[in-house]
Design goal:
The chain is an alpha+beta fold. It is built from three helices and five strands; from the N terminus they run H-E-E-E-H-E-E-H.
């Protein structure tokens, strides 16, 4: 069981942004930008292209709704999207608020935000869903 499956099961806490029957969105605890959100299928699948077509389309539709809420909640020029999947073997989409293209650089130092700020960001995004 991956750390993401444990988050979905409630075994590990997260800053939840959105959830439905099949998908879950939460703040990345090592964000590259304020509001960096992860969107995952609840069913544990290692690789994006291993999802069924229905799951794949559903995941992107869910991610689109989350991205629209994120863009309203966190001031930015647009939302960047990345699918890397190297660090956790559970398919996930990164949604990152961007003001420059450099904001989507996963090699730069990660932000450390206080728990209160993370909770406020998650609540602001959830409030726009």
């Amino acid at each position: 069981m991956t750390i993401f499956s444990k988050i979905v099961a409630g075994e590990i806490p997260s800053y939840k942004v959105a959830e439905d029957e099949h998908y879950y969105a939460f703040l990345d605890i090592n964000p590259v930008a304020k509001g960096h959100t992860l969107v995952i299928p609840k069913r544990e699948v290692n690789y994006l292209f291993e999802l069924t077509e229905e799951e794949y389309l559903g995941l992107w539709a869910f991610a689109r709704r989350v991205a629209q809420a994120l863009e309203q909640a966190v001031p930015c020029k647009r939302i960047g999207v990345a699918v890397l999947g190297m660090e956790v073997p559970h398919c996930h989409i990164h949604l990152v608020p961007l003001n420059t293209e450099g904001d989507l650089n996963f090699q730069k130092p990660k932000l450390t935000l206080p728990a209160e700020q993370m909770a406020a960001i998650a609540a602001a995004i959830a409030g726009k869903m």
